[in-house]
Design a protein that fits this description.
7-stranded antiparallel beta sheet, 18 helices, 6-stranded parallel beta sheet
């Protein structure tokens, strides 16, 4: 017993020590972030405030595309006032039958920096994908964790002759698996990342616990069978409680598989809530030595739900459909501050129109608007499943005002957050930025670019690369893109829209402003990244380039590969390249 206790104790100390190493490594970025007074009030609690007079752009999504000679471009709300943006002399007319080809992409001037970089090859290797869901650094971290668990499980121990060891090991992991599962993640706060970035570790620790619990039980069954007293032992109360705990873990393991999560997310959630609570009680009745570990897990769990309650707002939102994008625009004017660009909230719609169980579901959505504006919080919810389909149907049943203009549909919602984001990274510290987004991932780029435009920074170049299926997706967001590229003379903003579906309609007469291009096929990210880096240096920037990607895992993988393959001399000359990933489906 003494050896078991010592091994488990030292294993937990070692794991905590590794967490502290990552914490200390994040301190410089944390200092750079919180040295700004505004960062102390942003990214923690949603609130309402009187917005300052600003020039933050807001698109009027009732915009209708038309010829400029017949009518103006459309209406924008620009800093709370309505203005009309007419066609400008340098806007170019496009015909998608003769859409721009690769020649429309920015050209990369010749540049040959001689400064070498040691860190870039290492970072590139760590960012490389071993699998669609895991990078090399994630795999190395998981292997280190598995090595620690296996060492303490099998050091001078045989699971068939000493099944106690496996029980001690899984007990020691109870606080970690619960801490990693919480939305207000204490480990994430220490290392400066959102809970979703550590979810892969939560799944790993959970699977190790399932395996360890079954090894623990099978070892005792084997031992009791050899001794011939298996039935007498199975009749003991503490053994029955152990079986209850085992069933809970096995149920959690099965319902956590990707198949169950994708087919029945409600079953996944329900099984987690019920099984995790029952497991804690069963573990304590099974073995009193579990009590301290269970108590620690309860502290994490209860504190998380207290903080979640504090971060939750119940308010009224307005739903508007965007048919071209298959997106529901959710406007929450009563919440207009408290988040950072790139963060997301968890949305619950309190309406019977969502179905019998729809009101119980909570879904994460990236905030698409910038904080401290009159329009408040804006979410763009892509229609991808039953719940988002019901939300889109509700938006389509919107009401109309006296002028016949659509005013949207009001609905009560519960908004929890903000969560996630870019951690301690301050995007405005960089000289250039490139946002690679797919579909509804444009919400990440919109909030980030709008925030960068308003910040007092030396940002020289901002490129948005948006991949969509149909070119008509550009229509509802064209007014906002026009405002961004035309109203910011100090920052060069380019928007490249790539579509992958064959054109089924004509867009003759569609006018695009200078800085907005639409191209067929998939973006050549390596060429676009090199152009962004070179243009940033040409504009005098030397504080690095921020690359943000938001979309499916495949898009994140392609972007990471482009960053890895970028010219090391260019990356060094510009001051480095920072990659941040937001992927769908975590």
């Amino acid at each position: 017993m003494g050896l078991d206790d010592d091994l488990v104790y030292h294993a937990d100390i070692l794991i905590f020590g590794i967490i502290l190493i990552f914490t200390f490594a994040s301190l410089p970025r944390a200092y750079a972030r919180f040295s700004r007074r505004s960062e102390w009030s942003q990214g923690h609690l949603l609130r309402s405030m009187v917005p300052f007079s600003s020039t933050k752009p807001r698109a009027n999504l009732n915009f209708t595309l038309s010829h400029p000679e017949k009518s103006p471009y459309g209406d924008f709300d620009h800093g709370g006032s309505s203005i009309t943006c007419a066609a400008l002399p340098y806007q170019h007319r496009i015909n998608l039958a003769h859409v721009a080809d690769e020649k429309a992409l920015p050209k990369v001037p010749n540049r040959d920096p001689t400064v070498s970089s040691i860190w870039h090859p290492i970072a590139s290797m760590l960012r490389s994908r071993v699998h669609d869901n895991y990078s090399v650094n994630q795999v190395l971290l998981m292997l280190a964790y598995i090595t620690i668990i296996f060492y303490v499980s099998f050091y001078k121990s045989d699971p068939f002759t000493d099944p106690h060891r496996a029980g001690f090991v899984i007990t020691s992991q109870i606080p970690f698996v619960y801490a990693l599962a919480t939305k207000n993640n204490i480990i994430g706060m220490m290392v400066g990342v959102g809970y979703e970035k550590l979810n892969f570790l939560h799944r790993l620790v959970g699977r190790l616990m399932v395996i360890g619990a079954n090894v623990h039980f099978i070892g005792f069954v084997y031992k009791w069978s050899l001794a011939g007293d298996i039935y007498q032992n199975l009749a003991k109360d503490f053994v029955r409680w152990g079986i209850v705990a085992l069933v809970c873990l096995d149920l959690l393991g099965f319902c956590s598989t990707e198949y169950v999560r994708s087919k029945s997310y409600n079953l996944f959630i329900a099984s987690h809530v019920v099984s995790l609570i029952i497991f804690l009680f069963a573990a304590c009745y099974h073995e009193p030595a579990c009590v301290p570990y269970v108590a620690a897990a309860c502290v994490f769990y209860i504190l998380d739900h207290i903080v979640r309650a504090v971060k939750t707002r119940v308010t009224t939102a307005k739903l508007r459909p965007l048919p071209e994008l298959g997106i529901t625009r959710v406007e929450v004017p009563s919440i207009n501050a408290g988040w950072r660009a790139g963060q997301h909230v968890r949305l619950r719609v309190l309406s019977s129109s969502m179905g019998w169980w729809g009101w119980t579901e909570v879904h994460p959505f990236t905030i698409a608007s910038v904080a401290e504006t009159p329009e408040g919080m804006v979410l763009m919810c892509k229609k991808t499943g039953r719940w988002t389909g019901s939300l889109f149907s509700m938006a389509q049943s919107a009401s109309y005002g006296e002028t016949g203009m659509e005013v949207g549909r009001d609905v009560r919602v519960m908004v929890e957050g903000p969560y996630g984001g870019v951690g301690h990274t301050v995007m405005s510290n960089y000289s250039g930025a490139m946002f690679v987004v797919g579909g509804s991932g444009i919400s990440f780029a919109l909030s980030a670019v709008s925030d960068l435009v308003q910040a007092a920074t030396d940002m020289k170049v901002i490129d948005i690369i948006w991949s969509v299926r149909d070119p008509s997706c550009l229509t509802p967001l064209l007014p906002l893109f026009t405002t961004l590229v035309q109203k910011n003379p100090s920052t060069r903003i380019n928007v490249h829209v790539f579509y992958t579906r064959a054109i089924s309609t004509t867009f003759d007469g569609m006018y695009l402003p200078h800085g907005v291009t639409i191209l067929p096929g998939r973006p050549k990210l390596e060429m676009l990244l090199d152009a962004a880096i070179t243009n940033t240096m040409a504009a005098g920037g030397s504080n690095g380039v921020f690359v943000g990607v938001c979309g499916p895992v495949s898009l994140a993988t392609t972007t990471a590969r482009a960053v890895n393959n970028s010219d090391v001399r260019l990356c060094t000359a510009v001051g480095g390249v920072k990659l941040h990933e937001e992927t769908f489906g975590w």
